[in-house]
Amino acid sequence: MVRTVLGDVAATELGRVDAHDHLFLRSPALPGEELDDAAAAQAELAEFARLGGGTLVQWTPYGLGRGAVDLPRLSRDAGVHIVAATGLHQARHYPPGVVEALAGPALAELFVRELTEGIVPGVRAGMIKVAGAYHGLDAHARWTMRAAAEAHHASGATIGVHLEHGSSGPEVASLLCDELGVAPTSVILGHLNRFPDDRALRELAATGCFLGFEGPSRAHHATDWRLFDALASLIDAGRTDQLLLGGDTVVASGRATTGEGPGAPYLPRVLWPRLRREFGADAEVAITITNAASAVANAQGRGELRDKPLEPMVPQ
Predict the structure, then answer these.
(1) Which residue in 9, 37, 48, 136 has its CB near the most CB atoms, within 10 A?
(2) β-strand pairing of 55-58 with 81-83
(3) Residue 180 φ/ψ, nearest 5 degrees
(4) Euclidean distance between CA atoms 140 and 137, whole angstroms
(5) CA–CA dist 55, 78 (Å, integer)
(6) Which residues contact 23 (CB under 8 A, 6 or more apart)?
(7) Which helix (H) or strand (E) holds 82?
(8) Residues annotated as binding site?
(9) What's the confidence (pLDDT) of residue 305?
(10) Is the pLDDT of residue 312 over 60?
(11) φ, ψ at 66 (rounded to 5°)
(12) Between the CA of residue 117 and those of 111, 126, 266, what are the distances in Å?
């Protein structure tokens, strides 16, 4: 099963998946580029659906303006499944005091709470998003990943990891999988398009984790031209079943319908058809449907689904 903002659905019902994107996002690190317009999000999702998109996985974690109240309506109106995230990003993405308020066991408790009870009443998170540091794991990354592992073991939720500029993948896999006991099939290593070293990517694939590529966002388009070479190298190495593709629209100007693009619709409009042309129908179905469904599916029983009203923690 996959936990969406409208409830749990069978993984086989997701259709083609944008495995890493954002309809809403607000960060002090991206001033003036906030994704905080519900109407713009609605237009983007409607165009994504019109072109054949079935599910969008929003990696926006706690405290970064996830738009949790709006997500169910947007999902129903567009006919697109949405998976929301709990988790915590790098500290630089938060105003002073937000991260400090979650010290100690409060962080893991927050993650579990949002996975099992809800971000807001009736809207539960379906994955956990955390982040590494640049070419290493600092104390913040280790703290958040330990909390994510605890929440995973309590809920079965997948852990998606922002790799800063695509770095530190081996260190993340070692911590989460070897030390903290998270199955590699419950870990997505994201932003590997930003570090397109074919040899390093093949070594990283040996960890068994899912490998996320999010090429088209305007914020990091310099490596777009390496995307298909990186995918080809991994497909040739027999790693097709670990590959994921996302849009990762992180700035308002990157939306396709209200900005300058490419946005989430770029996947069904350009990248998915190109996958089929370059690698064949089987590989395209694996990357856009089968792998994505496996990557975000619940690894075990998610625990008790509680019906009691929930007062959300602030900020959202």
Answers:
(1) 48
(2) parallel
(3) -105, 0
(4) 8
(5) 10
(6) 35, 41, 44, 45, 56, 58, 60, 67, 71, 74, 82
(7) strand 81-83
(8) 20, 22, 129, 162, 191, 248
(9) 32
(10) no
(11) -70, -15
(12) 10, 11, 34
Classify residue 281 by burial, with Cβ atoms within 10 Å: 0-12, 13-18, 19+.
exposed
With 0.90 as the threshold, say if the pTM is over it: yes
**What crossing angle do the helices spanning 198-205 and 227-236 adopt, rounded to 10°?**
50
User: Domain limits of the chain?
Assistant: 2-300
Paired tokens of 251:
């700035």
Chain segment 171-187, per-residue pLDDT in tens? 999 999 999 999 999 99
In CATH, 2-300 is 3.20.20.140:
yes
- Annotated binding residues for Zn(2+), as ranges? 20, 22, 129, 162, 191, 248
Angstrom CA distances, 184 to 172, 205, 210, 295, stand at 11, 10, 7, 10
Q: What pLDDT, in 10s, does the model give residues 31-62? A: 899 999 999 999 999 999 999 999 999 999 99
